Amino acid sequence: MTMKVSRRGFLQVGGFAFTVAMILPRVAFAARNSLRSIRTGIQPGGKTRLVIESSARPSYSLSYPENQLVVDIANMSADSSVKPTLASGTLVSAITQTQSDDHLKIVATLRKPIAKLEKSQIMLLEPNGDNDYRLVLDFSATAAQKIAESVKSAETKAPPKKHVVIIDAGHGGKDPGCIGKGGTREKDVVLSVAKRLRTKLDEAGFKTYMTRTNDTYLKLAQRAEFAETHKGDLFISLHANANPSRSVKGFSIYTLSEKASDEEAKKLAESENAADKIGVDGFTEFEKEIRAALSSLQQHAVAEMSEEYANGCARAFRANKVEAQPGPSVRHAPFAVLRSTVPGALIELGHLSNSTEEKLLKNADHQNRLVAAIVRSIKNYNFDV
Questions:
Q1: How do residues 252-269 score in pLDDT, each as one tens digit?
Q2: What's the CATH architecture for 164-380?
């Protein structure tokens, strides 16, 4: 008996023809997604966050049996080695895995019922540094309970909280930062932008604090600790870049990650972290100076919120017609100044090494355009997640 596969994918066995799909199992044609981790945490406002991390972008659906939230993920197998990390004080009392054909059902047992999640309560995050794809679900008890509690305390309800934004003007004092060919110093440009940003954010109803308001030198750990002390909700560190190629220009945005996203991000982090080396008492390990001890769960939550802000900030810059540096607009590296429990990003406003952009960065109108983009990104950021 002769067998051969035709050009159209038919297997000829004697006088009979079969499609290859009729003979080989379906799973052979699609790489399976793998479960990496499951964890919960508490977000501002008492919301519960459920994070499901996977090796590939998940195809999922949600259902809401009584006192349960079920996440159905296609093309994924249960993995008993993945143990859920459950934070105290959340609505989730237990998480189990159930296999149904080629679907994995992740079942979260809830202490109180919840309403159907809206799109604004769901995020699907791309891989970032040490993290793979993450499906992030934020929820709280049903709206009916919240409405009842709101009506009960309407007369004594406190005014809405002002979100706290920490504005960090990079470098300062004996640390000028990078210097353009025309003599423009990074520390002067970013302080000017920081002051403009503070004015606009105050006008928009935010509570702002600046790590420095004059030409002062601060260590990186002091800046991070400042954000902790002032209970910041968001930390914005402003900088201006330099590149060996004077033709390179444009903004870029960075978040904290133990592993740099690329070689350029790694070198920039090393350069920015080296700012501490000019201190009279020498360079110290900033890790030992940060007083906030971050748990693994906190680190993941802060990283996710920082990435969400950074992506929104990049969109706001592009919408305001601010030119981006070639390559990814959002990158990741181990920046010392971002090591705290406060979500945040380091924004490189442009390149002083580019003569055209050096002139722009000194220009008041251009600084106002940069500020408008940052204000837009902060207004669009979901502080309550």
A1: 998 887 666 567 666 766
A2: 3-Layer(aba) Sandwich (3.40)
